[in-house]
Amino acid sequence: MDVSRTVALNNGGSIPVLGFGVWTGMDPELQRGSLEWAGYRHFDTALIYGTEKPLGEAIRKSGIPREEFFICTKFPWNHHARIVESLNESLESLGTDYVDLYLMHWPQYVVYEKGNFFPKNPDGTVRVTEEQNFNQSWEVMEKLLETGKCKAIGVSNFSIKTLEKLFTTAKIIPAVNQIELHPYLVQEDLVQYCHGKGIVVAAYTPTGTDVVRKDPVMIELAEKYNATPTQVVLAWHLARGVVAVPKSADEGRQKENRKLPVLDPEDVQRISGLDRNARLSSKIAEVNRTRWGWTYEQLGWE
């Protein structure tokens, strides 16, 4: 499978179908190596990860022209009131004049406290406020496009419910919706909804956890295609028209992730049939089924 291909964005640009997630604690030398020997050109980071600066250093040291890269970053849940400042901070850390894609990391508005991404209420829940909503934040993001500091804008962790609310005021349709997506969380309705609106779906935690990769169906298909379960899962994403953004600190796995089989249609369906509507990413549901201060109902997850 050709993993160097791109998918068209609704702004006229394009995004590589396979990215590299630059997660918290990633070694700058490892990141630079992924540019040199694994061939990655699509990198996904976020202000909260603390990896923008080392990623920027790795890109500069690679000697590869900036325009050959696709860089995505995100502003965090507590920066809704300071989006412009947040983007400027990210650009400074990355050492670049622009990002290819700028995302709203989460729809909920968490109270801003300098140096504290997780301000808490006395009961331990994250402190949110309704002083500003994501519709207002999106309006700010739309204006950012005019500055040239981001080529495309999008959202992350949006459901059909939150997207429909966004569309009541949005002048520009998000280019991308990055969501948790893997064989145990297929989200077929949301994927089809986004595709119908011209929104590219990008998957984080694309291979799930070990429990997904050790599923008997995944083991069987890995043997059939002479591949690893991870390679099979990534191939499944691409077969669904989904951009996959895996992360790995292992050089061998980074290389493997770019060598994917072409799955038979019936095997794509078999993998989709593993769906359990199971959210596995970070497992940070706080109390009463909330995530970062919002209930699953507010997020549109139930």
Explain what this protein looks like in three dimensions.
There is one protein chain. With 302 residues, this protein is of the alpha/beta class. The chain has a single domain, classed as NADP-dependent oxidoreductase domain (TIM Barrel, Alpha-Beta Barrel). Helices cover 34% and strands 14% of the residues. Helix 1 (28-36) packs across helix 2 and helix 8 packs across helix 9 (229-239). The protein is globular, with a radius of gyration of 19 Å.
From the structure above, extract its key features.
302 residues; alpha/beta; TIM Barrel; 8-stranded parallel β-sheet; 12 strands; globular; NAD(P)_OxRdtase_dom_sf; oxidoreductase; oxidoreductase activity, acting on the CH-OH group of donors, NAD or NADP as acceptor; Aldo/ket_reductase_CS
Strand percentage lies at 5-15%
Span between termini: 35 Å
Radius of gyration of CA atoms, rounded to a whole number: 19 Å
| Largest sheet: spatial strand order | 3-4-5-6-7-8-9-10
Query: Strand count, sense and closure of the main sheet?
Result: 8 strands, parallel
Low-confidence stretches: none
Tally the helices.
12
List the domain count as a whole number. Answer: 1
CATH architecture: Alpha-Beta Barrel
Q: How would you describe the shape?
A: globular
Tally of DSSP β-strands:
12
Q: What is the CATH third-level topology name? A: TIM Barrel
* Order of SSEs: EEEHEHEHEHEHEHEHHHEHHEEH
- What is the mean pLDDT? 90
- Reading off the top of the CATH hierarchy, the class is best stated as Alpha Beta
